[in-house]
Amino acid sequence: MTSTAVLRSQEIELPSWAFANSGTRFKVFPQAGVPRDPFEKIDDAAQVHKYTGVAPIVALHIPWDRVDDFGALAVHAADRGVRLGTINANVFQDNDYMLGSVTNPDAGIRKKALAHLFECVDVMDVTGSRDLKLWFGDGTNYPGQDSIRARQDRMAEALAAVYERLGENQRLILEYKLFEPAFYTTDVPDWGTSYVHCVRLGEQAKVCVDTGHHAPGTNIEFIVAMLLREGKLGAFDFNSRFYADDDLMVGAADPFQLFRILHEVRVGGGFDPAAGIAFMLDQCHNIEPKIPAQIRSVMNVQEATAKAMLVDLPALEAAQAAGDVLGANAVLMDAYNSDVRPQLADLRAEQGLDPDPMAAYARSGYAERITAERVGGVQAGWGA
Ligand code: RM4
Ligand code: MN
User: Do the Cβ atoms of 284 and 34 come closer than 8 Å?
Assistant: First the structure.
């Protein structure tokens, strides 16, 4: 695909929870004007799409986004020019899950967790969502606490039951995370574990790469290349981290890494919409205003995509074939060091958008309006 075709067809999915209050383990700092319900989250997400033109999908988190009528929420999204996307399950916030959800040694608790996952598929049936994203906080804190092998058996059993329940156009996306909240073993800690489960499940099971979920120094683009080769890359959860998982804006910590990842996506055919890769943000904005932070993040992904598309692939392949180490590296760096912002500004102008989304949003008065209007009620946040 040409660069223009990729940039025109790119769709970046926004997480509903990015618009709600969030914080660290120590403190949630509320912000003025934060949505009180999923409908208002959709309104805010639609602003991001309005100014960037490439973020028309909003992912939901159940139960944070539970509503009586998901059909009405889907209609509300359509009215705002966006649509509902991935359904993210949550089996990590209930007292019962202290020792795990689907891998809990207690069969009753496993059943409860599975019932929630089924409920998520029911929601997908109504919203028309393609993907069910599963992230499990399951694991152990102490050696000997539980059987590593038995927990894998329980995981496999639960995943198989959910997979069985999927419609033919639905997918199960299994996310991994090295550690936290479990500190000794995590039941799905890495891409290998996720991959093995997905291979066993079948075609409709794919891996989610959350860029914040690796040990420092991990070569994420290598993982991306491997998963693409095997047709098992289902989704990205984009964010940045400096130390452990901390959901900072994608491209903030290491824009070069983001570029390297997207270069692998390109050469692996991942920008072709038929590859079915969900390019999602999974972020929380604890100290910065949320809507502009999402706009900035979308732009960061777009800029890294444009740079990845600038890599002169024939020149790269020629240098690689000739064993020209420095030449090959220079081809990559030339693309990375290019300023693609004017190109993206032109692309926006062509689509009738303001060339500068950050400034256009700031000028719009939306932030002032929601601050004035959203008074009373309970602000949405973790657990609400
Ligand atoms: C997890 C994981 C999931 C996200 C939750 C809120 O660490 O990244 O994708 O849904 O956090
Ligand atoms: Mn994630």
Answer: no
